[in-house]
Amino acid sequence: MSTTVDDLGAQLIAAEGAHLAHNYHPLPVVAARAEGVWVTDVEGKRYLDLLSAYSALNFGHGHPAILAAAREQLERLTLTSRAFHNDKLGPFATALAQLCGKDLVLPMNTGAEAVETGIKVARAWGYRSKGIAPDAATIIVANGNFHGRTTTIVGFSDDPTAHDDFGPYAPGFVHVPYGDADAIAAAIDDNTAAVLLEPIQGEAGIVIPPEGFLRRVREICSANNVLFIADEIQSGLGRVGETFACDREGIVPDVYLLGKALGGGILPLSAVVANEDVLGVIRPGEHGSTFGGNPLAAAVGLRVVEMLASGEFQTRAKALGEHLAQGLESLVGHGVTAVRVAGLWAGVDIDPAAGRGREIAEKLLARGVLVKDTHGQTIRIAPPLTIRATEIDWAIDQLRHVLP
Ligand SMILES: Cc1ncc(COP(=O)(O)O)c(C=O)c1O
User: Fold this and answer.
1) Tens digit of each residue's pLDDT (9 = 90 or more) over 76-99
2) pTM above 0.70?
3) CA 257–ligand 1 middle distance (angstroms)
4) Which contacts qualify for 323-330: CB closer than 8 Å, 24 or more apart?
5) Residue 111 sits in the same domain as residue 237
6) Ligand 1 pocket test: which of 52, 146, 201 has the largest number of ligand atoms within 8 Å of its C-beta?
7) Which CATH number do you get for residue 114?
8) How many structural domains comprise the chain?
């Protein structure tokens, strides 16, 4: 019997179900190709991508300039390990340091690795520079945080799904409510090495802290000789209409953690970026990664940084973000209880009477829109920054259709 086109997707989903670990619950769509903001499934149906692989596709699928950099490098040199130098890593580090206004870059691969690296740097800085007693360093983190999936990181998550049954957990983390600068000030003691925060909490549902919070955290950290580590892995690199979410309050953290979009939607590339007095505490042999700083990733990262340096994507995200905000706000009271928007990044709280977030995502999928729910009732919207106003309008129309 011949296979019809219609059941190809179902077959592929069944094959995944049989042999893939069940650590995800994907929506029932099997992508086969994509270009710009549009994804095509194995059955030829097109979808507007409003997730962008959790902001890893800020420049859209297959951006020609990023593809060109990757193709050119793929033919020349892809991997050396850090045992040797390569001719792409220096230019990439220089460009990224410049974009961040910092001295040094430590390249890794995934976001969680950048966070782990930031934690190691903060602890080493605490012992070697601040003079904290051995093994006593603590890091202040926020309730509702999401910084990745490694064992240390899930240890300080307060989301039971991320955290439970993966102990014993690494000690040395102190929790405070997100957005509460006074709580941070009160939690700091002589052993505090760093405050680690998302400037906007992504996985929590695009939770934007009160105006002035980041400025106060900056002041408190400076006054107490504590590092401010900003996890900009999801919020950074143009997403919020600025290069970094910290720019919204005109502040510069001591350490930037970057990932996702840094790899241009092509490969994993993350980085820790800080000044010499902080990142310089790491000595040869103390930290690294076989693939970290590989020439293929560096070539892609360099192109991404060059694209961001023009400011074009940030400006676009700001202008179109206002358009998105207007559209989403028109839905409040019509199946939506609240929206939070920063640039082209939005959390949309669905009225429980209208259904669970997952149900709305499934209905949108049927209408050709890709979104993902988070924490039950919230839909997260993060289109590629290349989306057009007419495409935003079309997406809002689809959302309006699936809400009561
Ligand atoms: C703020 C933040 N930090 C870290 C991570 C972890 O990144 P990765 O999945 O690449 O390890 C994420 C992923 O969603 C994130 O949103």
Assistant:
1) 999 999 999 999 999 999 999 999
2) yes
3) 10
4) 323/389, 323/392, 324/381, 324/392, 324/396, 327/392, 327/393, 327/395, 327/396, 328/381, 328/396, 328/399, 330/396
5) yes
6) 146
7) 3.40.640.10
8) 2
